[in-house]
Amino acid sequence: xxxxxxxxxxxxxxxxxxxxxxxxxxxxxxxxxxxxxxxxxxxxxxxxxxxxxxxxxxxxxxxxxxxxxxxxxxxxxxxxxxxxxxxxxxxxxxxxxxxxxxxxxxxxxxxxxxxxxxxxxxxxxxxxxxxxxxxxxxxxxxxxxxxxxxxxxxxxxxxxxxxxxxxxxxxxxxxxxxxxxxxxxxxxxxxxxxxxxxxxx
Length: 201
Known about the structure:
alpha/beta, 3-stranded parallel sheet, 3-stranded antiparallel sheet, 3 helices, elongated
């Protein structure tokens, strides 16, 4: 069947109120039965009660899209409005960890639910009110993300080319010397030129 094939089955618990008979498929083994509570976290009067209720979710006066010539949205109440909240949460759980089995999803929903009445399981709220944030965090804690991989180091800078050789000196033959007044005068092959005056001459 679908459960054995790995499909998570989330089913409305029914809208027959207290003392209602089991509602199927919610009462089938492997299904997660969903009850309906209102905006004050109070179980809805119409929500079926019984051992097939696993958790509850918001299902009272829920705005939904409808086919209507005059209106495209309307508010409805019932476990059929509560069930999509849990189905959406299960989808987020599988997105976070695709390896989760239907049983693991059910256990996480139960373990992270809020025990509204206290004292453990009861036929009104089941194990409690679903807590999406806590359910998703439970998966993150069990499967922490891998550390980010370090980026590839940047390539080394290109080598600096060898500087060009200095140009040949233009004063190989004619060098410059300075006189006492800071004036440079040329000389050739170690002798001063005839037109150069040095101190003491």
